[in-house]
Structure formats: C-alpha cells, structure tokens
Amino acid sequence: MTICVTRFAPSPTGPLHLGHAYAAILAHDMAHAQGGTFLLRIEDIDQSRARPEWETQIEADLHWLGLNWSDPIMRQSDRLPIYRRALQRLWTQGLLYPCICNRRDILEAASAPQEGAPPAVGPDGVVYPGTCRHLPEAGLPLPQAALRLNMRRALDLLGAPQLTFVETGSGPLGETGTITVSPDDLCNGVGDIVLARRDMGTSYHLSVVLDDAAQGVTHVTRGRDLFEATQIHILLQRLLALPTPLYHHHRLIRDEHGKRLAKRDDASAIAKYRSEGATSQDIRQMIGLS
Ligand code: GLU
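^ thats the input. predicted complex w/ glutamic acid below
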C-alpha cells in the first residue's frame, strides 16, 4: 500500500488566513489519518512579492494550529536549476517557443477576430492567440522572452493521449471520481501557456508538478479554484514522465459576504485571532474541521 503523502504549499506573500488554515489542516489530517506524512513547501518563485518575514510568520501560525510537518521544508527558490533542466528537456523536444507579448498585445490580438466579443479565457487567463508561435527564433531577444508550451505539438508528441486523474474531493461543478482531460479543451480552452515567465525563469504550473513529484506527494489537496489548472498539470506530468498523484480539491472559505478570502483580508488573518486569544480548536470550529 502506498503511504499517503500530502503537502501544504503557501506563497509567503502575506499572512495566513482562515482559508489557508482550512487547506493546511485538511492536508495534515488526511496524512495523519492514514499514518502518512505531511510536508511543507514554500512557493516563493515570485521574488518580487515573497518575503522571509512572511515565511517565519506562516511557520509560527502552522505550529500554533498544532500542525507539524516532516523535514525538510522545500523552497522553490532553491530549485531554479531543476526547473531549468526540465525546460531544457522540453526545448530540445521542440515543445517551447519564446514569446515577447505583453498583456495588452495578447488581449488585442485575442479580441481582434471577434471584434468586441470577449476573448476565450482558460485556467491561465486569456487563451494565447499564438502571435509569437511562428516567429523565427533567431529574431527574438531570448533573455527578455517568456517560454510558452506549444500545446498542439505537445499533444501530437504524446499521440492521442488518454489523460485522466482521480479526484477524491470535487471540482466547481461537483466533478469527482475519474476525470478525463480532453485534448480539445487543452488546445482551445487552455492554449499555449507560459512555462517560464521572463521575471522568474519558471511558472506556477511547471514548478508545482516538478515539486509534487520530487516530494513524493501522493495526494494533492488544494482549493477548488485550482481544479481547472489540474488538466495542465496532468499534461506536464506526461511530458516530463512524472507520476500523477490523486487530487482532492476542497471548498473555499468565504467571508460573510460570500467573497473568497484574500491575503490582504487581515480581518481573517490567523495572527489576528491568535492575538485576540482564540485557540487552535476555535479556528477548527470556525472552518468546520473540528
Ligand atoms: N501556492 C498556491 C497557493 O498559495 C498553492 C498551489 C497548490 O496547492 O498547488 O494558492
């Protein structure tokens, strides 16, 4: 039997709030209920926003919540050479191309064919209209370019792939059980996603699949808002010959107006409840995990 390995993967860009507490406790309790391992990963590739002070605060809040993780803590900022190696592999296979478009270029090009109709939006934003896909590579200033995945070529290389994953929680429309990822949706609804942002040398999607595999994560637990991104992760796992874990997307904690909690919502910060004398049991009760 495989031992259950879960992880909590916060970005150190602000205080933990009730939504993070929910995600962390769920992952922790799932591993412990099965005699497994709970891991921590600090997703700090966005160096313009990540701060060591937030990481310290996150660890203190998690300990206060009664959560312990197995060492070592993984930090994405330590793993840039690993991400680069994976990009080199995909580049050698002819699956990447440089892109110098900015947000405005993309929006304009994506809106142009439909004159006024809103452009298609996928889990990674506006579906890239392909402007740089056919440019001669020699003409592009590589250091200032992002690297995009040529989705059509990636699917062709895999040859009519059967892409599935097992969802043990549920997606936004109640999707659960074995979920089939459609190559058509990947081509038309997701498109040529960025795998290396020019300012980071990697992207959330690339890092998360490499890191989950490197940490031996067997059950990815995370918010339902990332359900749609999972199809991208399954595809990348295939391209990079990585295992596909089980996925458990969970409900999102909302404020009293039904709005999703954000990092800037200090009102729901764990640190605030701590300073007001709440106990970790109170927090579990507030989010329905006691
Ligand atoms: N770092 C992401 C976040 O803070 C979590 C990503 C994941 O769980 O895959 O929302």
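The pocket of glutamic acid is lined by residues 9-11, 43, 208, 222, 226 (CB under 6 Å).
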